[in-house]
Amino acid sequence: MSSELRLGFFCALAAYLFWGALPLYFRALDHIAPGEMLAHRIVWALPTGLLFIAIASRWREFRAAVTRRRLFYLGLSASLIALNWLVYIWAVSQERVTEASLGYFINPLVSVLFGMFFFSEKLRPAQWIAIVIACIGVGILTWELGRLPWVSLILCFTFASYGAVRKKVSVDGRIGFAIETALLFPVALIWLVWFQSTPEGSWMGDRPVDVLLLPLAGPVTAVPLILFALAAKRLKLSTIGMMQYIAPTLQFLIAVLIFREPFGTTKAIAFCFIWTALAVFTTDSVMGDRKARRLARAAQLS
Questions:
Q1: pLDDT tens profile 39-97
Q2: Residues contacting 65, CB < 8 A, separation 6+
């Protein structure tokens, strides 16, 4: 493995471990209302994102990225990721991390559907089979819960939509993240100022440790995104595709083994359908990538 591939692998691994451990961070702050926590996440993420741009000396690219078209798309993507963050924070505070992890397991399949609808990408038969199997799993979970697993669905559809919108904008991941948080920053700051004026309002939480934990919301948000951007430039999509299940798997294990969220037989059956769909999807992706490489080599030799 070359040094570049090794760097990409460890960057991706670190990013997914970060994302997988996020429930532990938000559970430590679950006494703070989800809206307040979201505002802190945005407010502290902006200086963190700007710091990374300063370290990389990307100010020229940052200024060049501020165009009307890019601001429109990044404003849309910022709204989607803010909704995703809010629902995720709420899910952790309400002990529904298992349901949240399901959303990120389903996300790759939704992304494939979006590719078909919005980017004219063709689905292979195995991908259709994976989507049908996943729908059966969601149906079983809906029957078991007595309602749609709306936390899972909002998380997977907002994140897949976020990826689709970002695909329309050719901008460095660090720069795009900084612009997104800059667009959200005024709203978050105004909300915090208003909240501080209410009887239950507080700038930095209720406990002394909150003064240390809340500013970490910036690095906790920005660092895995930066690591992922570095990995995406160095690794094949098939490698990233297989590694992306690390985060929801960790979230699922934390929910069941540490938070002791209920996980009965029916829910286990539903998750087995989801995992089977992902196995079919991943196997097909790997085989498709190998076939594409063989065809490319054959074309070069002919």
A1: 999 999 999 989 989 988 889 989 988 888 999 999 999 999 999 999 999 999 999 99
A2: 171, 172, 175, 176, 179
Residue 203 DSSP class: T
Degrees, nearest 5: CA angle 8-279-137: 125
Q: What is the DSSP letter of 242?
A: H
Angle between helices 246-253 and 97-119 (to 10 degrees): 160
Structure tokens at 189: 């700051």
Indicate the pTM of the whole model: 0.85
Distance, in Å, from the CA atom of 45 to the CA atom of 19, rounded to the nearest integer, reads 15
- φ, ψ (nearest 5 deg) of residue 82: -65, -40
* Residue 121 near residue 115, CB atoms below 8 Å: yes
Closest CA to 219 of 48, 101, 50: 48
Tokens of 281: 């999807």
**Where does residue 198 rank: exposed (0-12), middle (13-18), buried (19+ CB within 10 A)?**
exposed
d(CA 200, CA 36): 11
Closest CA to 107 of 59, 163, 68, 62: 163
Query: What Rg, from alpha-carbon coordinates, does the chain have?
Result: 20
- Amino acid letter for position 254: I
Q: Count how many residues are written for the chain.
A: 302
